[in-house]
Write a structure and sequence with these properties.
about 350 residues, alpha/beta, Transcription Regulator spoIIAA, two-stranded parallel ribbon, 10 helices, 10 strands, about 30% helix, globular
Amino acid sequence: MSEFGTLESRVHRKALLDKVISAEECIQFFKSGMDLGWSGFTPAGYPKAVPIALADHVEKNNLQGQLKFNLFIGASVGAETEDRWASLDMIDRRWPYQTGKNIAKGINEGRIRMGDKHLSLFAQDLGYGFYTPKLDVAIIEVSEILADGSLVPTSSCGVIGEILMIADKIIVEVNTGQPSFRGMHDCIIPLKPPKRQPFLISKASDRIGTESFPCDPDRIIAVVESKYRDKGRAFADADETSEAIAGHIMQFFGDEVKAGRLPENLLPLQSGVGSIANAVVGGLAKGPFKNLTVYTEVLQDTMLDLFDSGKLDAASSCSLSLSETPGFPRFFENWDKY
């Protein structure tokens, strides 16, 4: 049991408790050449217990290059999983994005076959079966398994919905090392064209989906308890140059408001990652603009500052790409507020 509850309290479909095994016991389900789908988007919400156990198995038994997989993940994930796999020559193909040093080296040396794809298009193509008609095994990190078998993600959504659509077998890592994210997500799997409907969203706080992704419980072959925290994205401190750029942007916003081209609460904002983005968001936290809203790919530490300033009404994002420290601890300690 952790301070955030027991595995039993997170698994509401009680029949699945019969499938609880250790990460090490999951090694039996993997064979070289398999197509694997992982949850995760940036270093958040990715499976850790099973990938780490597989890496330990390869390292301990000198199986480098003999147990290789094709990885399909929403974006990059934590270095202790994917990048370690690359260092152990465990990756054959990889779609659609990566940031690790070891995996980049493997790609440049021709050992890893990398396919690059715009992240906004990858989920749809994966669901179509464009890359592979099926995934052999999915490894999904979740906060809870609901009574209907659906899965509540943790700190990101990634391409979980599409992975669950085409995965033959599913391993679920239930992370009890952090609070449950139930209620935080807005999950939707759109219809395929030409039957796709408009997304009825007009502001960042709108919701059109559900708190979980549908999952066929009969395809779940293992439930593994995990207490690993996300490694997150290291916080990039603002320097003199990025602070100057932020100052110019704040002045620009102010001038546009005075000229009547922007409302006083601006328009929905999108922020990137890195020192400049952090400086700009930090400037907004100290600035005169209130009732702000944000649509952004990832949320970083300074977005918490903006929340704490009382000037941010709502933020919609694909991932909580906070720092391992102090970002995630700060977020969890002030859970109810955020």
